[in-house]
Sequence to fold (869 residues):
Amino acid sequence: MRDVTAEEIESLAIGAWILGTGGGGSPYLALLNMRQLYKKGVVCRLMDASELADDDLVAVCSNMGAPLVGQERLTDPQTMALAITMMEEYLGRKFRALMSLEIGGGNSIQPFMGAALLDLPVIDGDCMGRAFPEAQMTSFAIHDLRMYPLTLADVRDNAVVVARAASWKWMERLSRKACVEVGSIASTCKAPRTGKEIKECAILGSTTKAIGIGRAVQAARRAHRDPIDAVLEVAHGIRIFGGKIHDIARRTTEGFLRGTATIEGLDEDRGHTFTLAFQNEFAVGWRDGEPTVMTPDLICVLDTVSGDAIGTETLRYGQRVTVIALPAPPILLTPKGIEHVGPRAFGYDLDFRSVFA
Amino acid sequence: MRRRIGIDVGGTNTDAVLLEEDAVAAAVKTPTTADVTTGITRALAQLVERAPGAREAHAVMIGTTHFTNAVVQRRQLGRVAAVRIGLPSGASLPPFVDWPEDLARLVRAEVIMLEGGHEFDGRPLVPFDAQGMRAAARRIRDAGIRSVAVAAVFSPLNASGEEEAASILREECPGVAVTLSHHLGRIGLLERENAALLNACLVELARTTTRAFIQALRGSGIAAPLYLTQNDGTVMLAEVAEAYPVYSFASGPTNSMRGAAFLSKRDEALVIDVGGTTTDIGSLRHGFPREANNVVEIGGVRTLFRMPDLLSLGLGGGTMIQAAPALAIGPASVGYRLTEQGLVFGGDVLTVTDVAVAAGLIDLGDRTRVAALPAALVNESLARIRAMIEEGVDRMKTDAGEIPLIAVGGGSFLVPPRLAGVSEVLNVPHQSVANAVGAAIAQVSGEVDQIFQDLPRDEAIARARRAAEDKAVSAGADRATISVVEVEDLPLAYLPGNSLRTRVRVVGEIAR
Fold:
């Protein structure tokens, strides 16, 4: 267990936005909350999963809803804490620690917001190793762990417990319905996990990894070095394509932002075209019509100059971007993992081939 | 004949041009004065002297960096009461939350957070706390605060909370200036609220400045209506604009790029604007500046304003050169004191202009005063300047190919005729007053950004377009000339039904 510095939270926000692979929502508002809390003297603690006893209980936290609503309703540590304490009341047991559902985007910081108010440590890990659009796209689902109960709280003191659900899909439907009713933004505490489940089924070390990526970007910027090179080096990634956004088509179906972005090559990729398909997050990339990179490999689109991640909602014509791939956590690469989060899970009839193979 | 006057008030020079139809009939350049208006009066007097037709102008457009500078330099800012309507949401992130502390300390007079606001679908979040607003209004009055910024959750979709707050403020605090966030912008509460707060702290300065502008105009015998230019290359009637000073942020660079496109008749090019203190390099696309992708910070405050994507270098005609112990160019500049402090003007500061005169790039002041400068110093300085410009051009290019570069601004003589990565350097007539030309050709715009539900896409866009046109007309546009310049629609993930965020921007000619 160790203290997390204010600088590390800043690094986490940058690294997590890159690991968000275009989704997960910008960490900016969560970061602002953490700055406020740290100004008041809060110091969060990061806990290694090995420090958990097998029967300890861990809360898996996330904010749910539309990122656009978040831009107006903002985000508040109180609701996160409420979802967690409600779960404790429902279970009649106390949590030992909190953990993030997904390390990609704003949800990387949500457990720290809850932890600041509840004085609990945050586990170094998550269950996606990135961001994904659907509830069953987690390492816990791949391991067939139970998906209920779930608590959901809004800022007006509305709260819901989903006591049971017949499947991950049902859990998604029931909780989504409640979330929409309270204004498409809510804090949720997912099915609680035991220390043993965390140690065996979570994606461990991902918080430290995100902090490391963010720190590398910051150091490169300070030294006027290429921040993208720094990301590739620290996260063992591959540069896939560089160019400028030429066309973007988006549509909403079944509550997801789907679409494609076309990039015209520059410099060494001049004369080539790269197409990216996304469902909240980037799913598949084609170079001149040939599929070259696909989920669960992490596909990240970065601003070529600043190294800042660009989300699927903020892609715009004319942006100069570099597409990179980062390796996926091993659990996502197992046959069962590919079933849950491979290209076919996103509707692409492709056999998964890793760029790192 | 259609006559328009464009004026640009920069940090160093105040420029004025008269356009007759689409031709530059006269152009003048005068030093900016500390009180701004004296410079404008002088520029207008010279303009009228050269082209008496200027008195019959149909419209006068002024572009000024006065309000941006006030924020950046932290001067002449008013104290503001911030009213946020949206509790219980957002309680942990109050107004001014991400402001630089020194600026917040100057501006923040009172922070009030009240229950109210709306959901994305127009339902109330919680009922508006009108009683709390009335109590707050009385506190504002008793504290003697003269300007209030009001921001409510989802006010771009439903402005009733902000409107109700405004009417209570007007009842309880007669004469108080009220800025409502939904007039300034888009979805994104903190950024929209920041814009409202910046506006509120500039409103008093804007009122006195605008009125001084009008006085300067009338004093020069010009009866035409006055417009102020905005950051998107369009204008607003001064009577409207004085309530929205934030819209003028970054209008200077936009004007010079629009002017460069107009004078060179090129729509796709890079533009380099060399002023007295800085050089801005931007990219023209379809005759308008390419906009920055990122959130734009003004004096350290995060906003969502659309700003041209610019690279600024600390290089201008007034940039100081240090010859020893090692050669250093800038970034310090003598600014508008160039004509007193530069060597060729009888001063004792070595500036970039002195080196240019010594090399024969331009004939200014007294050339004999720089005749003794060592040739090595002159050559090395010019080589450094070339390297700075070439690197800047390269960074702004989106393409490895060579493209044209339009040189404008009072210091455009510093741009070498041949540069790496550039197909041709375009020097156009009146290039030193391109910013004033850009102001003169500005049109009037209207913009709407709204979420529509369960409407076919075409119908949603048509509705947004009608609302944008109405806004443009109320800002002074001739309805018959309005055209759509931008349509953007974004389906919203995770929202139920068929939610579409639609943004439409229209521009039109100024109504005569």
User: Anything to note?
Assistant: The mean pLDDT of chain A is 94.
